[in-house]
């Protein structure tokens, strides 16, 4: 059996076994033609096109988030392009994305592409990781974990085989950042992965891309072929894996199981992927936006990167605004920008109504109330108001949205996307959904029903294995606290 460079014998043997767990996924056999989106951004905009929303509700299987949140309610036939602007003092992750002029290998090289990789190869692995530590870069996938610390952990692991995994399963409703980075600057991701490989001692990488992004897939496949033909990546190899429809595969251990053709349930941690990850080898799992910061950091230095941003949130952040804004689109800003600036100046306020709430970073975090909009964008600052930076997707809700309806919508989504690994999430999300649906009929829950719902949410928050279950509970408790008038029939 011939192994690919950097690939373990165990990995090769397992991947050639043909093992499949298709029944877990809801898009395994869907062509995604003429599909309507029923993600939360489209839910927020359903009053602008009730007929399209009805089409989404009646469609089987359901499709949650097509990455077209700037034109909600959207479908696979939606052709509009978002506004893309760099508003930070330095363009890092959206450089070239706004213009869309460096998609192919020749154009990318002419724009100094792959020079950071060449520079990194002249450095030791330790020197590259040190630059990342000095940059204070934190993961842009949601958790905000220090990137340098994760890189260092993989570098320090013994063993001849390690992996880089780019998490491009951008499933948070309202987010379409990774989609356009990949579509318009695919070589930057490949360069970043090769830099990461050198930094931690990994000889190969995988890109896990969601099926809902066919244009991104096409762009990546062309770029990968160009990179192989040019030899620019050296011995570092990259493989592309297309998801089959699962929100929970955005969680790193579930994603790894999916690549291995196992049922993509959450893995109990420890051990962490940095020690025992893909095919039981040390693995660096990082989302696309995090990775594409690497070329800039290597070129300009970690200290220069750390001078951007504020507080403990350094560098820039891409954010994506949904269709209710007057100026929906994709923007690169520096940390420290207030939510009010984002809503009123960048987004231009809402098109037809005043704003009721902001969902920051996906459907499993708390909401921000207008009274909290003077808060500055930062990991700790968002956490202090019960929200999150998350992946950067921002969904605005106007007063057409009732929070009880939102809870029923999100718990239906959460229950259908639960991996089933842990009882609190598997049973709790479904039972809570039923209780919210009951309250939607206009009947207040009984005292016993309210007590049951409170106990379910508390158990989900405290004992779920991952952020899917705990995040749903945090969201519900956030809505109860900040928008109690909408949910009195559930919580009193």
Task: Reconstruct the topology from this structure.
Layout: H1 9-15, H2 40-44, H3 50-58, E1 83-86, H4 105-110, H5 115-121, H6 125-135, H7 147-155, E2 163-168, H8 177-184, H9 186-200, E3 204-209, H10 214-230, E4 237-242, H11 252-259, E5 283-287, H12 288-291, H13 294-300, H14 302-306, E6 309-310, E7 313-314, E8 316-321, E9 329-334, H15 339-346, E10 355-360, E11 367-368, H16 379-384, E12 393-398, H17 403-417, H18 423-440, H19 447-463, H20 467-482, H21 488-491
How would you describe this protein?
The protein has 492 residues and is of the alpha/beta class. It folds into three domains: 50 residues, no CATH class; 219 residues, Rossmann fold (3-Layer(aba) Sandwich); 89 residues, de novo design (two linked rop proteins) (Up-down Bundle). The chain contains 21 helices and twelve strands. Strands 1-9-8-12-10-11 form a six-stranded mixed beta sheet. Strands 4-3-2-5 form a four-stranded parallel beta sheet, with helices on both faces. Strands 6-7 form a two-stranded antiparallel ribbon. β8 and β9 form a beta hairpin. α8 packs across α9, α17 runs antiparallel to α18 and α18 runs parallel beside α20. The radius of gyration is 22 Å and the shape is globular. The N terminus is likely disordered.
């Amino acid at each position: 059996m011939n192994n690919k460079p950097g690939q373990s014998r165990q990995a090769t043997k397992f991947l050639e076994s043909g093992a499949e767990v298709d029944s877990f996924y809801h898009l395994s056999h869907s062509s995604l033609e003429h599909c309507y989106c029923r993600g939360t951004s489209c839910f927020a905009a359903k009053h602008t096109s009730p007929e399209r929303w009805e089409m989404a509700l009646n469609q089987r299987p359901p499709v949650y988030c097509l990455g077209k949140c700037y034109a909600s309610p959207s479908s696979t036939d939606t052709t509009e392009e978002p506004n893309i602007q760099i508003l930070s003092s330095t363009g890092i992750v959206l450089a070239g994305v706004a213009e869309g002029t460096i998609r192919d290998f020749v154009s990318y090289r002419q724009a100094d592409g792959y020079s950071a990789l060449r520079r990194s190869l002249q450095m030791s692995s330790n020197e590259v990781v040190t630059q990342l530590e000095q940059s204070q870069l934190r993961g842009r996938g949601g958790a905000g974990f220090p990137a340098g610390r994760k890189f260092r952990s993989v570098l320090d692991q013994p063993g001849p085989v390690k992996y880089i995994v780019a998490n491009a399963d951008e499933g948070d409703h309202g987010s379409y950042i990774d989609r356009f980075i990949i579509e318009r600057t695919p070589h930057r991701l490949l360069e970043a992965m090769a830099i990461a490989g050198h930094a931690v001692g990994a000889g190969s990488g995988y890109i896990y891309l969601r099926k809902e992004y066919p244009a991104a897939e096409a762009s990546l496949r062309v770029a990968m072929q160009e990179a192989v033909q040019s030899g620019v990546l050296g011995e570092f190899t990259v493989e592309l894996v297309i998801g089959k429809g699962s929100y929970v595969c955005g969680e790193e251990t579930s994603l790894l199981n999916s690549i291995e053709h196992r049922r993509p349930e959450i893995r109990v941690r420890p051990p962490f992927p940095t020690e025992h990850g893909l095919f039981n080898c040390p693995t660096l799992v990082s989302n696309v936006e995090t990775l594409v910061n690497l070329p800039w950091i290597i070129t300009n230095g970690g200290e220069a990167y750390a001078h951007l941003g504020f507080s403990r949130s350094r560098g820039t952040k891409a954010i994506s605004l949904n269709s209710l804004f007057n100026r929906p689109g994709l923007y690169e800003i520096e940390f420290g920008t207030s939510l009010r600036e984002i809503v009123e100046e960048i987004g231009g306020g809402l098109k037809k109504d005043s704003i009721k709430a902001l969902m920051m970073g996906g459907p499993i975090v708390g909401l921000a109330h207008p009274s909290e909009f003077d808060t500055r964008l930062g990991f700790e600052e968002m956490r202090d108001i019960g929200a999150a930076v998350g992946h950067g997707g921002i969904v605005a809700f106007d007063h057409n949205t009732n929070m009880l309806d939102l809870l029923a919508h999100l718990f239906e989504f959460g229950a259908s996307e639960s991996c089933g690994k842990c009882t609190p999430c598997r049973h709790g999300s479904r039972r809570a959904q039923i209780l919210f649906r009951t309250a939607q009929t206009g009947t207040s829950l009984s005292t016993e029903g309210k007590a049951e719902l409170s106990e379910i949410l508390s158990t989900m928050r405290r004992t779920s294995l991952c952020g899917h279950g705990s995040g749903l509970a945090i969201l519900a408790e956030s809505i109860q606290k900040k928008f109690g008038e909408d949910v009195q029939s559930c919580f009193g």
